[in-house]
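Entry for NAP complex. Fields follow.
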Amino acid sequence: MSKVLVIGAGGVGSVAVHKMAQISKVQPEIFSHISIASRTKAKCDAIAESVRARTGVTVDTYTIDAEDIPALSALIARIGPKLVVNLALPYQDLTIMEACLATGTHYLDTANYEPRDEAKFEYHWQWAYHDRFREKGLMALLGSGFDPGVTSVFTMWLKKHKLKTIRTLDILDCNGGDHGQPFATNFNPEINIREVTAPARHWLNGAWVETPAMTIRENFDFEGVGPKNMYLMYHEELESLARFVPEAERLRFWMTFGDAYIQHLTVLQNVGMTRIDPVIYEGREIIPLQFLKAVLPEPSSLGSTTTGKTNIGNIATGEALDGSGEKTFYINNICDHEDAFHETGNQAVSYTTGVPAMIGAAMMLSGAWSGEGVFNIEQFDPDPFMDMLNRHGLPWQVKELAGPLQF
Ligand SMILES: NC(=O)c1ccc[n+]([C@@H]2O[C@H](COP(=O)([O-])OP(=O)(O)OC[C@H]3O[C@@H](n4cnc5c(N)ncnc54)[C@H](OP(=O)(O)O)[C@@H]3O)[C@@H](O)[C@H]2O)c1
Protein backbone atom coordinates (compact mmCIF):
# COMPACT_ATOMS: atom_id res chain seq x y z
CA MET A 1 0.00 0.00 0.00
CA SER A 2 1.33 3.44 -0.82
CA LYS A 3 -1.22 5.99 0.29
CA VAL A 4 -0.52 9.66 -0.41
CA LEU A 5 -1.88 12.78 1.28
CA VAL A 6 -1.74 16.03 -0.72
CA ILE A 7 -1.99 19.26 1.29
CA GLY A 8 -3.19 22.39 -0.57
CA ALA A 9 -6.13 22.65 -2.95
CA GLY A 10 -4.92 25.35 -5.35
CA GLY A 11 -4.09 24.92 -9.03
CA VAL A 12 -0.92 22.92 -8.34
CA GLY A 13 -2.64 20.57 -5.87
CA SER A 14 -5.46 20.05 -8.35
CA VAL A 15 -3.12 19.02 -11.20
CA ALA A 16 -1.06 16.73 -8.95
CA VAL A 17 -4.17 14.91 -7.70
CA HIS A 18 -5.58 14.52 -11.25
CA LYS A 19 -2.27 13.06 -12.45
CA MET A 20 -1.94 10.74 -9.42
CA ALA A 21 -5.45 9.47 -10.10
CA GLN A 22 -4.57 8.75 -13.76
CA ILE A 23 -1.58 6.68 -12.63
CA SER A 24 -3.45 4.91 -9.84
CA LYS A 25 -5.71 3.36 -12.47
CA VAL A 26 -2.81 1.64 -14.23
CA GLN A 27 -0.23 1.39 -11.44
CA PRO A 28 -2.19 1.19 -8.17
CA GLU A 29 1.00 0.03 -6.45
CA ILE A 30 2.38 3.60 -6.79
CA PHE A 31 -0.68 5.58 -5.65
CA SER A 32 -2.89 3.05 -3.92
CA HIS A 33 -5.09 5.71 -2.32
CA ILE A 34 -5.20 9.52 -2.63
CA SER A 35 -6.41 12.06 -0.04
CA ILE A 36 -6.36 15.85 -0.24
CA ALA A 37 -6.59 18.25 2.71
CA SER A 38 -6.60 22.03 2.68
CA ARG A 39 -7.83 25.05 4.60
CA THR A 40 -11.04 25.24 2.55
CA LYS A 41 -12.64 21.80 2.22
CA ALA A 42 -14.98 22.96 -0.57
CA LYS A 43 -11.94 23.37 -2.83
CA CYS A 44 -10.82 19.80 -2.02
CA ASP A 45 -14.33 18.55 -2.78
CA ALA A 46 -14.36 20.35 -6.15
CA ILE A 47 -11.04 18.70 -7.08
CA ALA A 48 -12.28 15.29 -5.94
CA GLU A 49 -15.44 15.73 -8.03
CA SER A 50 -13.44 16.69 -11.13
CA VAL A 51 -11.11 13.70 -10.61
CA ARG A 52 -14.08 11.36 -10.19
CA ALA A 53 -15.74 12.70 -13.35
CA ARG A 54 -12.55 12.50 -15.42
CA THR A 55 -11.02 9.25 -14.13
CA GLY A 56 -13.57 7.47 -11.94
CA VAL A 57 -11.07 7.49 -9.05
CA THR A 58 -12.29 8.41 -5.54
CA VAL A 59 -10.24 10.97 -3.60
CA ASP A 60 -10.92 11.56 0.12
CA THR A 61 -11.09 15.19 1.28
CA TYR A 62 -10.39 16.87 4.61
CA THR A 63 -10.15 20.34 6.09
CA ILE A 64 -6.92 21.24 7.87
CA ASP A 65 -4.87 24.21 9.02
CA ALA A 66 -1.41 22.98 8.10
CA GLU A 67 0.16 25.42 10.58
CA ASP A 68 -1.51 23.59 13.48
CA ILE A 69 1.03 20.80 14.08
CA PRO A 70 -1.05 18.70 16.57
CA ALA A 71 -4.16 18.83 14.34
CA LEU A 72 -2.15 18.00 11.23
CA SER A 73 -0.30 15.17 13.00
CA ALA A 74 -3.65 13.74 14.13
CA LEU A 75 -5.01 13.91 10.56
CA ILE A 76 -1.91 12.23 9.12
CA ALA A 77 -2.08 9.51 11.79
CA ARG A 78 -5.77 8.96 10.97
CA ILE A 79 -5.22 8.68 7.19
CA GLY A 80 -1.91 6.79 7.47
CA PRO A 81 -0.21 7.93 4.23
CA LYS A 82 3.31 6.84 3.35
CA LEU A 83 4.01 10.29 1.88
CA VAL A 84 2.72 13.84 2.42
CA VAL A 85 2.93 16.05 -0.69
CA ASN A 86 2.97 19.68 0.42
CA LEU A 87 1.31 21.86 -2.24
CA ALA A 88 0.09 24.53 0.18
CA LEU A 89 2.22 27.66 0.59
CA PRO A 90 5.92 27.98 1.52
CA TYR A 91 4.87 29.36 4.95
CA GLN A 92 3.62 25.87 5.91
CA ASP A 93 6.77 23.91 4.96
CA LEU A 94 8.23 23.64 8.46
CA THR A 95 4.99 22.79 10.27
CA ILE A 96 4.24 20.07 7.71
CA MET A 97 7.78 18.69 8.09
CA GLU A 98 7.26 18.63 11.88
CA ALA A 99 4.00 16.70 11.49
CA CYS A 100 5.73 14.24 9.14
CA LEU A 101 8.45 13.66 11.75
CA ALA A 102 5.84 13.22 14.47
CA THR A 103 3.97 10.59 12.46
CA GLY A 104 6.84 8.81 10.65
CA THR A 105 5.78 9.98 7.17
CA HIS A 106 7.91 10.92 4.14
CA TYR A 107 7.67 14.53 2.83
CA LEU A 108 7.80 16.33 -0.54
CA ASP A 109 7.33 19.99 -1.57
CA THR A 110 7.76 22.36 -4.53
CA ALA A 111 8.86 25.61 -2.88
CA ASN A 112 11.27 26.30 -0.04
CA TYR A 113 10.28 27.78 3.31
CA GLU A 114 9.74 31.53 3.55
CA PRO A 115 9.10 33.47 6.74
CA ARG A 116 5.97 35.60 6.35
CA ASP A 117 7.64 38.86 7.36
CA GLU A 118 10.60 38.66 4.97
CA ALA A 119 10.69 37.67 1.28
CA LYS A 120 13.69 35.40 1.76
CA PHE A 121 13.56 32.01 0.10
CA GLU A 122 16.51 30.01 1.37
CA TYR A 123 17.04 26.32 1.98
CA HIS A 124 18.88 26.53 5.31
CA TRP A 125 15.70 26.29 7.40
CA GLN A 126 14.80 23.00 5.73
CA TRP A 127 18.34 21.63 5.35
CA ALA A 128 18.53 21.96 9.15
CA TYR A 129 15.99 19.07 9.37
CA HIS A 130 18.39 16.62 7.69
CA ASP A 131 19.56 14.81 10.84
CA ARG A 132 16.06 14.54 12.30
CA PHE A 133 14.70 12.95 9.10
CA ARG A 134 17.78 10.67 8.86
CA GLU A 135 17.45 9.52 12.47
CA LYS A 136 13.82 8.54 11.83
CA GLY A 137 14.67 6.74 8.57
CA LEU A 138 12.49 9.23 6.64
CA MET A 139 13.04 11.03 3.36
CA ALA A 140 12.15 14.65 2.54
CA LEU A 141 12.42 15.73 -1.11
CA LEU A 142 12.61 19.50 -1.59
CA GLY A 143 11.66 21.44 -4.72
CA SER A 144 9.84 18.93 -6.96
CA GLY A 145 7.98 21.41 -9.18
CA PHE A 146 9.15 22.83 -12.50
CA ASP A 147 11.40 25.60 -11.29
CA PRO A 148 12.65 24.53 -8.82
CA GLY A 149 12.34 20.93 -9.85
CA VAL A 150 12.54 20.01 -13.51
CA THR A 151 15.13 22.74 -14.15
CA SER A 152 17.48 21.03 -11.67
CA VAL A 153 16.72 17.57 -13.10
CA PHE A 154 17.46 18.98 -16.60
CA THR A 155 20.82 20.23 -15.28
CA MET A 156 21.77 16.87 -13.79
CA TRP A 157 20.64 15.06 -16.97
CA LEU A 158 22.96 17.31 -19.02
CA LYS A 159 25.76 16.52 -16.56
CA LYS A 160 25.09 12.80 -16.87
CA HIS A 161 24.68 12.57 -20.65
CA LYS A 162 26.22 15.62 -22.36
CA LEU A 163 28.63 17.70 -20.29
CA LYS A 164 31.45 16.62 -17.99
CA THR A 165 31.36 20.00 -16.28
CA ILE A 166 29.01 22.97 -16.48
CA ARG A 167 30.71 26.35 -16.78
CA THR A 168 27.62 28.53 -17.23
CA LEU A 169 23.93 27.78 -16.77
CA ASP A 170 20.95 29.99 -17.62
CA ILE A 171 17.39 29.00 -16.71
CA LEU A 172 14.85 30.66 -19.03
CA ASP A 173 11.25 30.66 -17.81
CA CYS A 174 8.74 31.96 -20.36
CA ASN A 175 5.01 32.06 -19.86
CA GLY A 176 3.68 33.12 -23.24
CA GLY A 177 0.09 32.65 -22.09
CA ASP A 178 -2.63 35.29 -22.32
CA HIS A 179 -5.40 35.07 -19.68
CA GLY A 180 -7.36 38.07 -20.95
CA GLN A 181 -7.17 39.93 -17.59
CA PRO A 182 -5.50 43.36 -17.25
CA PHE A 183 -3.41 42.03 -14.34
CA ALA A 184 -3.25 38.60 -12.72
CA THR A 185 -0.54 36.27 -11.51
CA ASN A 186 -0.34 32.70 -12.74
CA PHE A 187 0.32 31.18 -9.33
CA ASN A 188 -0.41 32.34 -5.79
CA PRO A 189 -0.32 36.19 -6.11
CA GLU A 190 1.28 36.79 -2.72
CA ILE A 191 4.15 34.35 -3.33
CA ASN A 192 4.54 35.45 -6.96
CA ILE A 193 4.77 39.18 -6.17
CA ARG A 194 7.14 38.62 -3.23
CA GLU A 195 9.41 36.69 -5.61
CA VAL A 196 9.30 39.23 -8.43
CA THR A 197 9.85 42.30 -6.27
CA ALA A 198 12.82 40.81 -4.37
CA PRO A 199 16.32 41.93 -5.52
CA ALA A 200 17.82 39.88 -8.36
CA ARG A 201 20.76 37.64 -7.47
CA HIS A 202 23.00 35.46 -9.61
CA TRP A 203 25.99 33.25 -8.87
CA LEU A 204 29.32 34.39 -10.27
CA ASN A 205 32.71 32.88 -9.48
CA GLY A 206 31.72 31.57 -6.06
CA ALA A 207 29.70 34.54 -4.78
CA TRP A 208 26.23 36.06 -5.10
CA VAL A 209 25.91 39.25 -7.15
CA GLU A 210 22.86 41.31 -6.17
CA THR A 211 21.14 43.83 -8.47
CA PRO A 212 17.88 45.78 -8.01
CA ALA A 213 14.70 43.87 -8.97
CA MET A 214 13.70 43.84 -12.66
CA THR A 215 16.56 46.03 -13.91
CA ILE A 216 18.49 43.60 -16.15
CA ARG A 217 16.52 42.70 -19.27
CA GLU A 218 17.21 40.66 -22.41
CA ASN A 219 15.06 39.76 -25.40
CA PHE A 220 14.90 36.07 -26.34
CA ASP A 221 13.03 34.27 -29.12
CA PHE A 222 11.20 31.35 -27.47
CA GLU A 223 10.07 28.45 -29.67
CA GLY A 224 6.28 28.21 -29.69
CA VAL A 225 5.92 31.69 -28.18
CA GLY A 226 8.08 34.20 -30.10
CA PRO A 227 10.38 37.00 -28.88
CA LYS A 228 9.84 38.07 -25.25
CA ASN A 229 11.52 40.35 -22.77
CA MET A 230 12.95 38.38 -19.86
CA TYR A 231 14.33 39.76 -16.61
CA LEU A 232 17.16 38.56 -14.39
CA MET A 233 15.71 37.34 -11.07
CA TYR A 234 16.68 35.34 -8.03
CA HIS A 235 15.13 31.90 -7.90
CA GLU A 236 15.60 29.31 -5.20
CA GLU A 237 17.13 26.53 -7.32
CA LEU A 238 20.18 28.75 -7.87
CA GLU A 239 21.10 28.03 -4.23
CA SER A 240 20.89 24.23 -4.56
CA LEU A 241 22.55 24.30 -8.00
CA ALA A 242 25.47 26.31 -6.58
CA ARG A 243 25.83 23.53 -4.01
CA PHE A 244 25.42 20.52 -6.31
CA VAL A 245 27.13 21.90 -9.44
CA PRO A 246 30.11 23.37 -7.60
CA GLU A 247 32.23 23.84 -10.72
CA ALA A 248 29.75 26.34 -12.27
CA GLU A 249 31.24 29.79 -12.78
CA ARG A 250 27.89 31.46 -13.44
CA LEU A 251 24.27 30.52 -12.68
CA ARG A 252 21.42 32.82 -13.72
CA PHE A 253 17.62 32.71 -13.78
CA TRP A 254 15.44 34.70 -16.20
CA MET A 255 11.66 35.09 -16.34
CA THR A 256 9.55 36.76 -19.02
CA PHE A 257 7.07 39.53 -18.19
CA GLY A 258 4.90 41.55 -20.56
CA ASP A 259 4.89 45.35 -20.48
CA ALA A 260 1.36 45.47 -19.00
CA TYR A 261 2.44 43.24 -16.07
CA ILE A 262 5.47 45.45 -15.40
CA GLN A 263 3.38 48.64 -15.56
CA HIS A 264 0.78 47.32 -13.12
CA LEU A 265 3.42 46.00 -10.77
CA THR A 266 5.33 49.30 -10.83
CA VAL A 267 2.20 51.25 -9.88
CA LEU A 268 1.27 48.75 -7.17
CA GLN A 269 4.81 48.99 -5.74
CA ASN A 270 4.84 52.79 -5.95
CA VAL A 271 1.57 53.09 -4.03
CA GLY A 272 2.68 50.59 -1.37
CA MET A 273 0.31 47.75 -2.25
CA THR A 274 3.11 45.16 -2.42
CA ARG A 275 4.34 45.88 1.14
CA ILE A 276 4.57 42.84 3.45
CA ASP A 277 4.79 44.82 6.71
CA PRO A 278 1.54 45.50 8.59
CA VAL A 279 -0.31 48.82 8.25
CA ILE A 280 -3.25 49.98 10.38
CA TYR A 281 -6.53 50.18 8.46
CA GLU A 282 -9.76 51.07 10.28
CA GLY A 283 -8.19 50.17 13.60
CA ARG A 284 -6.78 46.77 12.61
CA GLU A 285 -3.55 45.55 11.11
CA ILE A 286 -3.56 44.46 7.48
CA ILE A 287 -0.71 43.41 5.18
CA PRO A 288 -1.17 45.34 1.90
CA LEU A 289 0.07 42.42 -0.26
CA GLN A 290 -2.40 40.03 1.40
CA PHE A 291 -5.22 42.49 0.75
CA LEU A 292 -4.09 42.81 -2.87
CA LYS A 293 -4.21 38.99 -3.19
CA ALA A 294 -7.82 39.07 -2.00
CA VAL A 295 -8.88 41.37 -4.87
CA LEU A 296 -6.83 39.77 -7.66
CA PRO A 297 -8.19 36.84 -9.71
CA GLU A 298 -7.49 33.41 -8.20
CA PRO A 299 -4.86 31.74 -10.43
CA SER A 300 -7.02 28.60 -10.54
CA SER A 301 -9.83 30.69 -12.13
CA LEU A 302 -7.65 31.68 -15.12
CA GLY A 303 -7.57 28.25 -16.76
CA SER A 304 -10.68 28.55 -18.90
CA THR A 305 -9.54 31.79 -20.56
CA THR A 306 -5.79 31.22 -20.93
CA THR A 307 -4.34 30.57 -24.37
CA GLY A 308 -0.74 30.20 -25.56
CA LYS A 309 2.22 28.22 -24.29
CA THR A 310 4.90 28.09 -21.64
CA ASN A 311 8.48 27.35 -22.61
CA ILE A 312 10.86 26.67 -19.70
CA GLY A 313 14.36 25.30 -20.01
CA ASN A 314 18.10 25.52 -19.43
CA ILE A 315 21.01 26.64 -21.59
CA ALA A 316 24.23 25.11 -20.32
CA THR A 317 27.79 25.51 -21.59
CA GLY A 318 30.66 23.30 -20.52
CA GLU A 319 33.18 20.67 -21.42
CA ALA A 320 31.58 17.91 -23.52
CA LEU A 321 31.55 14.39 -22.09
CA ASP A 322 32.88 12.97 -25.37
CA GLY A 323 36.03 15.10 -25.16
CA SER A 324 35.05 17.26 -28.16
CA GLY A 325 35.71 20.57 -26.36
CA GLU A 326 33.28 23.18 -25.07
CA LYS A 327 29.63 22.68 -26.09
CA THR A 328 26.33 24.44 -25.42
CA PHE A 329 23.00 22.62 -25.02
CA TYR A 330 19.45 23.92 -24.70
CA ILE A 331 16.98 21.58 -22.97
CA ASN A 332 13.36 22.62 -22.51
CA ASN A 333 9.68 21.76 -22.35
CA ILE A 334 6.87 23.56 -24.17
CA CYS A 335 3.42 23.24 -22.58
CA ASP A 336 0.11 24.40 -24.03
CA HIS A 337 -2.31 26.19 -21.67
CA GLU A 338 -5.45 24.97 -23.43
CA ASP A 339 -4.28 21.34 -23.54
CA ALA A 340 -3.45 21.50 -19.81
CA PHE A 341 -6.90 22.92 -19.08
CA HIS A 342 -8.63 20.32 -21.20
CA GLU A 343 -6.88 17.50 -19.34
CA THR A 344 -7.07 18.73 -15.73
CA GLY A 345 -9.15 21.93 -15.57
CA ASN A 346 -6.02 24.01 -14.80
CA GLN A 347 -3.70 26.25 -16.86
CA ALA A 348 -0.13 25.35 -17.80
CA VAL A 349 1.65 27.07 -14.89
CA SER A 350 -0.24 24.85 -12.44
CA TYR A 351 0.22 21.90 -14.81
CA THR A 352 3.99 22.31 -15.19
CA THR A 353 4.30 22.33 -11.37
CA GLY A 354 1.71 19.67 -10.48
CA VAL A 355 3.05 17.05 -12.91
CA PRO A 356 6.62 17.11 -11.48
CA ALA A 357 5.17 17.04 -7.95
CA MET A 358 3.34 13.85 -8.93
CA ILE A 359 6.51 12.44 -10.55
CA GLY A 360 8.63 13.20 -7.46
CA ALA A 361 5.99 11.43 -5.36
CA ALA A 362 6.05 8.45 -7.76
CA MET A 363 9.88 8.36 -7.52
CA MET A 364 9.60 8.09 -3.73
CA LEU A 365 6.64 5.70 -3.52
CA SER A 366 8.02 3.34 -6.18
CA GLY A 367 11.46 3.30 -4.50
CA ALA A 368 13.18 4.64 -7.65
CA TRP A 369 14.55 7.40 -5.41
CA SER A 370 15.21 6.67 -1.76
CA GLY A 371 17.26 8.05 1.09
CA GLU A 372 17.20 9.02 4.74
CA GLY A 373 17.33 12.74 5.45
CA VAL A 374 16.48 15.94 3.58
CA PHE A 375 17.41 15.97 -0.11
CA ASN A 376 17.29 18.32 -3.06
CA ILE A 377 16.22 16.94 -6.39
CA GLU A 378 19.76 17.31 -7.84
CA GLN A 379 20.90 14.45 -5.57
CA PHE A 380 19.07 11.67 -7.47
CA ASP A 381 19.42 9.90 -10.82
CA PRO A 382 17.63 12.17 -13.34
CA ASP A 383 16.82 9.36 -15.83
CA PRO A 384 13.63 7.83 -14.32
CA PHE A 385 12.22 11.32 -13.64
CA MET A 386 13.00 12.47 -17.21
CA ASP A 387 11.37 9.32 -18.53
CA MET A 388 8.16 10.05 -16.60
CA LEU A 389 8.13 13.66 -17.84
CA ASN A 390 7.94 12.31 -21.40
CA ARG A 391 5.19 9.85 -20.53
CA HIS A 392 3.00 12.10 -18.35
CA GLY A 393 2.45 15.32 -20.24
CA LEU A 394 5.71 17.30 -20.13
CA PRO A 395 7.85 16.02 -23.03
CA TRP A 396 11.26 17.64 -23.30
CA GLN A 397 13.71 18.25 -26.11
CA VAL A 398 17.45 18.88 -26.16
CA LYS A 399 19.50 20.48 -28.92
CA GLU A 400 23.04 21.69 -29.35
CA LEU A 401 23.46 25.43 -29.92
CA ALA A 402 26.21 26.97 -32.06
CA GLY A 403 27.82 28.59 -29.01
CA PRO A 404 27.21 30.09 -25.56
CA LEU A 405 24.60 32.81 -24.96
CA GLN A 406 25.83 36.19 -26.18
CA PHE A 407 24.67 38.09 -23.07
N1 LIG B 1 8.38 24.88 -8.13
C1 LIG B 1 7.54 25.44 -8.99
O1 LIG B 1 7.74 25.35 -10.20
C2 LIG B 1 6.31 26.17 -8.51
C3 LIG B 1 5.56 26.92 -9.41
C4 LIG B 1 4.36 27.47 -9.00
C5 LIG B 1 3.96 27.33 -7.67
N2 LIG B 1 4.75 26.63 -6.79
C6 LIG B 1 4.34 26.46 -5.39
O2 LIG B 1 3.21 25.60 -5.36
C7 LIG B 1 2.44 25.89 -4.21
C8 LIG B 1 0.96 26.00 -4.57
O3 LIG B 1 0.78 26.99 -5.55
P1 LIG B 1 -0.70 27.34 -6.10
O4 LIG B 1 -0.53 28.22 -7.26
O5 LIG B 1 -1.50 26.08 -6.22
O6 LIG B 1 -1.22 28.22 -4.88
P2 LIG B 1 -2.75 28.51 -4.44
O7 LIG B 1 -3.64 28.42 -5.62
O8 LIG B 1 -2.72 29.74 -3.61
O9 LIG B 1 -3.07 27.25 -3.50
C9 LIG B 1 -2.51 27.09 -2.22
C10 LIG B 1 -3.45 26.21 -1.41
O10 LIG B 1 -2.88 26.04 -0.10
C11 LIG B 1 -3.92 26.24 0.84
N3 LIG B 1 -3.42 26.73 2.11
C12 LIG B 1 -2.87 27.95 2.39
N4 LIG B 1 -2.58 28.04 3.70
C13 LIG B 1 -2.94 26.86 4.27
C14 LIG B 1 -2.89 26.34 5.57
N5 LIG B 1 -2.41 27.06 6.60
N6 LIG B 1 -3.36 25.10 5.78
C15 LIG B 1 -3.87 24.35 4.78
N7 LIG B 1 -3.94 24.78 3.51
C16 LIG B 1 -3.47 26.02 3.25
C17 LIG B 1 -4.82 27.27 0.22
O11 LIG B 1 -6.06 27.22 0.88
P3 LIG B 1 -7.23 28.31 0.60
O12 LIG B 1 -7.80 27.86 -0.70
O13 LIG B 1 -8.17 28.17 1.72
O14 LIG B 1 -6.55 29.64 0.51
C18 LIG B 1 -4.83 26.81 -1.23
O15 LIG B 1 -5.79 25.80 -1.45
C19 LIG B 1 3.04 27.17 -3.62
O16 LIG B 1 3.88 26.83 -2.54
C20 LIG B 1 3.86 27.74 -4.74
O17 LIG B 1 4.94 28.51 -4.28
C21 LIG B 1 5.90 26.04 -7.19
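NOTE: The radius of gyration is 20 Å.
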